[in-house]
Write a structure and sequence with these properties.
This protein has a 5-stranded parallel sheet with strand order 2-3-1-4-5, with helices on both faces. α4 links the parallel β2 and β3. It is globular and about 75 Å long. The chain is of the alpha/beta class. The protein has a domain of about 190 residues: P-loop containing nucleotide triphosphate hydrolases (Rossmann fold, 3-Layer(aba) Sandwich), CATH 3.40.50.
Length: about 300
């Protein structure tokens, strides 16, 4: 066997070992998981190929939003471990964070609790040429706050009555509002929770609130149904993403997003790199005077 063949076998074995390590860590992209609606799960190679094509289109959409001064709000809601964060990550990973921003607010402060409910979300709405992705949003009131008793009864019903008007105000002002609900089954949610518990790199993703939500599955279902009955309007509808299969959910969500906002290629001037500037008079300081990061690898 020649040296090239030996190196190839070594590299192949190294890649297999790396994939095995990933799988042992519980990475959902390599681990076996069920499909959805009777379909087999998507093969990783096909998924990555399609995702690359869609992400290229997302870059074009981003440039069009900037070019036209559009304002876009994307809302991602759903049960815990439904795959909202993974979808957001795939949407944004090739985009400019100055144009495409993720909004993931924490628990409201004592001061924020005394404000008009929608007030703390207003500063995060997009300006011209921007897109804001809300990883959970004002719909917390209709979900976790309702089920866990974090809001009063009159506050809850006031939200359901006010929310359509609030969103209509945004739409009338020229903001594009697109709302996604990620739907996950109880067995798949349990599987993902167990992965998070066992994987030290993802354990931070599961909280006591997530664990408590398992005991209130039906209450969350009722809250979601009530929320939809008030806020799934013709002007601002909910789009449900079947999310038991993460790969399909991400591709379907991105493809749908691209279909919702007509866009075109933005003409770009050809970029020519100038020659590197040389200055014979410049003398670089001795490298011994600088502190370097140790090269452990």
């Amino acid at each position: 066997m020649g040296n090239k063949d030996k190196k190839k076998n070594h590299d192949d074995k190294k890649e297999e070992n790396t994939k095995s390590d990933i799988t042992r860590r519980g990475d959902p992209e390599e681990e076996s998981y069920p499909g959805q609606n009777g379909k087999e799960k998507l093969h990783l190679a096909f998924y990555e190929s399609e995702l690359a094509k869609l992400q290229e289109e997302l870059v074009k959409l981003q440039e069009w939003i900037k070019h036209k001064g559009m304002r876009v709000v994307l809302i991602f809601e759903g049960r815990d471990a439904a795959g909202k964060g993974g979808a957001i990550k795939r949407i944004t990973e090739c985009l400019n964070p100055r144009i495409c921003r993720v909004v993931a607010l924490g628990v409201p402060t004592e001061r924020e609790k005394t404000q008009w409910y929608f007030q703390r979300y207003i500063p995060h709405l997009p300006a011209a040429g921007e897109m804001a992705l809300f990883d959970r949003s004002w719909y917390n009131r209709a979900g976790v706050e309702r089920v866990m008793g974090f809001c009063k009864e009159d506050e809850y019903w006031d939200f359901l009555r006010s929310c359509p008007n609030f969103e209509n105000m945004l739409i009338r002002s020229g903001i594009i509002v697109i709302k996604y609900w990620f739907s996950v089954g109880d067995m798949e949610q349990e599987r993902r929770f167990k992965q998070r518990i066992e994987d030290p790199t993802r354990r931070w993703k599961i909280s006591p609130m997530d664990v408590e939500s398992r005991t209130r599955w039906v209450e969350y279902s009722k809250a979601k149904d009530e929320m939809f009955s008030y806020t799934d309007t013709k002007q601002s509808p909910w789009f449900v993403v079947e999310a038991d299969d993460k790969r399909r959910a991400r591709l379907n969500c991105i493809a749908h997003l691209l279909s919702m906002i007509p866009y075109e290629d933005v003409p770009r001037e050809k970029i020519l790199l100038p020659p590197l500037e040389r200055d014979k008079a410049y003398v670089r300081p001795p490298m011994s005077e600088q502190t370097f990061v140790p090269e452990k690898y």
